[in-house]
Structure formats: structure tokens, C-alpha cells
Amino acid sequence: MLRRFLLALPTALGSGLAASAPALTVCTFGDSILDCGHYNPQGVQPGQLLVRNDDALFPDFRGQDLQARHGGRLQHRAVDGATVDGLQRQLQGVRPVAGPAVAMLTVGGNDLLRGLAADTGAGMRAFERTLQEFVRALPVRPLLVGTVYDPTFGDDSRNFLGVEARIARANHERVNRILAEVATREGALADLHAHFLHGDASWFTHTIEPSLRGASEVRRVFLPLVLGRA
């Protein structure tokens, strides 16, 4: 009896330590890539799927969420339509998080749509400078940065920007390089651009916004980075 108790003790202690581990706080910043709930009837956001998967909608992700680890909570700050200039407003009221936390950021798509796709240099420098100001003020680390995806799947015949595709694609690449540099310094890169090139039209709605499937695919890219912190 005593021997069985002693053999079971390490397992019991280990289970207790796992159960008492603190939950991870996920803070989302940026644009509609993370604030896309109003683009699907279920109101699903990538951040909430990371915290707790909807097993009825996405059974393949059952058990692949923070709830299956030590729990998680979401601080959702991302705003549909946001550009890099709006990131500082999303920081209002944000304080350092007690316990483990991770910040997620998607930005740059609306900047490209609103003129950066045709930029000749000054706009890109301003984008990078404003992004760095946000990062310096952000009190949460690590920072997981998503690249800007391409809803045309690399097909120039689908160009909807009114800017020559060659120029627009070069600026798209510049934005993603800036985002990747920030990710390397501050945390990790979630390469949405690479992943979405292998998707299809069902991943999008309103031409550029993540659909319900798209919201899950955004979650898919961030998932290993977030679970790796839990």
C-alpha cells in the first residue's frame, strides 16, 4: 500500500502543478484580420478560437486551444478598418498583464488600400516609424505579428487596387518585410501571407475580409505560436 502511494505521488504532484499553472492572456491589436466577427453570422473572432475552440463549427481543432492547457482569456483591442495610425488609440487603458501574456498584431492591409500600395518611399517610412512607436509603447511581450495576406492569390488579373500590380506587389512585400523585422525583434512572425496563398475564395468575404473559414485559418497560423507560450 505504502509503495503504491509513493509511486503515485510524483504523478499526483505533477497534475497539481499543471492545474495550478496560470492562464495565458491573449491581447489582440490591429485591424479586421483579428476583428472579423461581424463578417460571419456566428460572430467568430480568431482570438476567441485560440482561447476556446468552437467544437461544433471546427471539430478538427477540438482540444487545440488554451482551455485544453491551463486556460486563457482574451483582451480584444483590434478594430476593423484600423491603420497603423490607429494603433496608439488601441493602447488606451492597456496595462502590463499580471501573469503570462502574449500580444497579437495584424496591420498594414488598410494602409495599402488607402494609398500605401502606390507609395514611392515617404509613406513606407512613416508606416515603419509609427509602427515602431506603437511597439515601444506596448506593455505586453512577446508580440506575434501577422503578415498581410493577398486576397488575389498572386493573380494580377484580380487586381482591385487601381494601382499597377507590379508597384502594388512591391509595396506589399515592403510592408511584410517591415512586419517581419518587428516580429524578429519582439517575438515571432505569423506568416498569414504564405498560408493564405494556398487557400481559396471561401476564406474571404467582401473581397478582402476573413470569412468564417478565414477566421479559423488566421487562428491556425497563430495557434502554434500561442500554444507554445501556454
Written overview of the protein:
- The two termini are 36 Å apart.
- The chain has one domain: SGNH hydrolase (Rossmann fold).
- The chain has helices at 2-20, 46-51, 87-90, 109-113, 122-137, 165-186, 192-196, 212-227, and strands at 24-30, 72-76, 101-106, 143-146, 187-190, 204-205, 209-210.
- The protein is built from eight helices and seven strands; from the N terminus they run αβαβαβααβαβαββα.
- A hairpin with a 3-residue loop joins β6 (204-205) and β7.
- It is globular and about 55 Å long.
- The strands form two sheets. It has a five-stranded parallel beta sheet, with helices on both faces. It has a two-stranded antiparallel sheet with strand order 6-7.
- The longest helix has 22 residues, at 165-186.
- With 230 residues, the protein is α/β, with parallel strands linked by helices.
What is the architecture at the second tier of CATH? 3-Layer(aba) Sandwich
Mean pLDDT: 93
What is the helix tally?
A: 8
Beta-strand proportion: 5-15%
Based on CA inertia axes, which overall geometry fits?
globular
CATH topology call: Rossmann fold
Number of strands: 7
| Helicity range | 40-55%
Uncertain runs with pLDDT below 50, 5 residues or more?
Answer: 1-18
The H-level CATH homologous superfamily, spelled out, is: SGNH hydrolase
The CA-CA distance between the termini, in Å, is: 36 Å
Integer tally of domains: 1
